[in-house]
Amino acid sequence: MGHAKQPSGPDLAAGVDVAELAENMPLLGHVGDDAVMLVRKGATIHAVGATCTHYSGPLAEGLVVGETVRCPWHHACFDLRSGEALGAPALEPIACYEVNRRGNRVSVGAKLSRVPVPKPPESPGKIVIVGAGAAGAAAAEKLRRLGYAGSITLIGHEAPGPVDRPNLSKDFLAGNAPMEWITLRDDAFYQEHHVELVRDEVTELDTQGKSVVLKGGRRLPYDRLLLATGSEPSRLPIEGASLPHVKTLRSLADSQAIIDAAARTQRAVVIGSSFIGLEVAASLRARNLEVDVVSIDRVPLERVMGAQVGKFVQQLHEAKGVRFHLAARLKAIHADAVELEGGKRLEAGVVVLGVGVKPRIDLAKRAGLTVDNGVVVDARLRTSAPEVWAAGDIAFYPEARLGSRIRVEHWQAAERQGQAAARDMLGLGGPFNDVPFFWSQHYDVTLSYIGHASGEAETQVLGNLDKQDATVVYRVGGKVAAVLTVGRDHQSLEIEAALERQDAAAVDSLLQAATSAAA
Ligand code: FAD
């Protein structure tokens, strides 16, 4: 989580020489206390807020692509002309400022007010969103930002409402993030935007009668529906897995339960060396617990990121005192310990299962929607039922670059799919083409991953992981399927932009540059 910094760079109210503005290269300055940047696009100069509205990332260190700027931290995307947050994880726009030009001097004036958006081409009467998580919440907001004035009902059975889920295993669990960072939006926000937030479970979806039924009995009709029911953590079929000190992590309540349990013990065992398992290990170390990680894998994260990255991450954790028990098999969980096959006992007052998630697709299945490895959707995220879209962890969608369907379990991708479904529901859609992106944080090291490489990708490390300056390329069938970077945020954005426009030559030349930089 970032914090706003003291303004730096020139006072843009006083002005700068136009010669200082290189095409597409943001120039960071300030207006009063606000960080503002100038971006020249040909003869046009934009002045916009330079702080990402997601985690306060430094937009002037980001990448300008067409009329957009992308944040180097989590790839949020803003329109330079309107300030609009075009792509999550930012949901709020950045400010736009008046630009004054006198001779060679460019100065920044007052903040501009927002230009009202035109009415969308289609305006269904009632839109219902099932699931108030990343995709659902982002969709609800996007509908309003696109000028939709009809009824929106956002239904979720998770308290308190939409939360910043990635934080639950990171700063919040470590004790470094206050509660107000966690709630994505509060009730007042939804009231102001006329979104009805219903805290209940949808138990039935009737695609013929176009309605959903809530556990409380209420039936809600819809004209268009978004299914965004996310995932639930897997449990293990072993003795002791249901004991009260054995936790999983998905919701704010789960994170709080782990914090409460951690306060009563000195020792934790994390089962599974997944991203979430390892982030939990890091956060519990920050709380000074002894942490053992038990995993069936030989190397943490090997299946997703390859052995070299896995070993690198393992070492980060070991340096902080986490103990790994790899290629290990669990025998049982007891009230005070985890027992491995072979008899080893690891004392634990709290046990956290980080053994993967499964998509919540029961509702879709019962409604007769086509499901496979998730809810099957087309390129516009439409399911097999008329007027029903699906987004987020459950959506099994066609990925244009790979030529196959994928399902991804990433925060930013879920939000973007929610936003894409919102656009499509209003007749503003097109194929969902965003390059999947996710990040994972281990102490002060962030891994940024773009693309999607499943299974047997060939891995090549350019640079030096130990120096936290590396690019890792994953090739499938000789083609670049994914790229991970450590300490190379700008390059991650550049490669993402090249993948987005399916420019294989540009991807190769960026990787070539990464190879030379590494040499
Ligand atoms: P969710 O966000 O899970 O939302 C689904 C919502 O639907 C839930 O609130 C659920 O209660 C509700 N729901 C389900 N069924 C019903 C029903 N029948 N009726 C009513 N409501 C229902 N991704 C990253 O890219 N980077 C990270 O660093 C990262 N960290 C993570 C840390 C943690 C602890 C977790 C759990 C996940 C993390 N992820 C991360 C993954 C990311 O959070 C998910 O991919 C994302 O939240 C998926 O969004 P979604 O909208 O599909 O589902």
Q: Which percent band covers the strand fraction?
A: 25-35%
Which spans of ≥5 residues are poorly predicted at pLDDT below 50? none
Number of distinct beta strands: 36
The total domain count is: 4
The description of the largest β-sheet is: 6 strands, antiparallel
Report mean pLDDT, rounded to a whole number.
95
Shape: globular
| Strand ordering within the main sheet | 1-10-9-4-3-2
Question: How far from one another are the termini?
Answer: 33 Å
Let me know the CATH homologous superfamily of the largest domain. FAD/NAD(P)-binding domain
Radius of gyration over alpha carbons? Answer: 24 Å
Helix content: 10-25%
CATH class wording of the largest domain: Alpha Beta
CATH architectural arrangement of the largest domain: 3-Layer(bba) Sandwich
Bound molecules: flavin-adenine dinucleotide
Summing up helix and strand content along with how strands pair, one would put the structural category as: alpha/beta
Number of DSSP helices? 10
What is CATH's topology name of the largest domain? FAD/NAD(P)-binding domain
